[in-house]
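Exercise 7.
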Amino acid sequence: MGFTVLIPARLASTRLPDKPLADIAGLPMVVRVARQAALSQAARVVVAADHARIVSACEAHGVAAILTRAGHPTGSDRLAEACEQLGLDGNDMVVNVQGDEPLIAPTLIDACAAELTARSECVMSTAAHPISDAAQFGNPNVVKVVLDAAGRALYFSRAPIPWWRDGPAPASPAAGAGTPLRHIGIYGYRAGFLRRYPGLPVSPLEQVESLEQLRVLWHGERIAVHITPDAPGPGVDTPEDLARVRALLS
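Solution. The predicted structure, written as tokens, is:
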């Protein structure tokens, strides 16, 4: 498919200082993410860092990395600069893999790229999986997505959507189209759109939900959604998450 994986990496983190450089089984976390991404069908994998320490750590382990401006408000803004530095434009495809997902499945990266390749009407793609746990459905930290008939995103929310007016939500993915879907934070982009993204006005819904993908829908663009049956491996946001992933990979 000839796509590029871009991994945004920001050194500062309130809950886990120097998060991209956290050691996981002998490797900095961002390097481990890049090595997982390299197992996909991507033509290349590049880390877009906000600090020279991240670039140095990547280069020490043979991972391509570029230094971007420190003041970007979102990961998408950082990747837009990375597209400019790398000369990507038009229909070149980019998959955004988060720098705190050391257990990301290479097959999920490929599926996100393939979804965008198949959907010429969409500027982005992403992924989701069925929710069968009531606690996750009600958790505002678990982002939900609802789709149209063609499998494109209608809306993303921290609220439990869709809401069953006349009874409890189905407890099994076998329930069909009404089954709630958990959004997975991986994105495919057409590079031309990604370079335009920072110029789009911030949407009110994006501000309310604190979900930057709502800016895309607000401005009338379409996002294709790949449905996978499996939840992704745990990401790393806190010291407890880091300990869990270290234990899994030890």
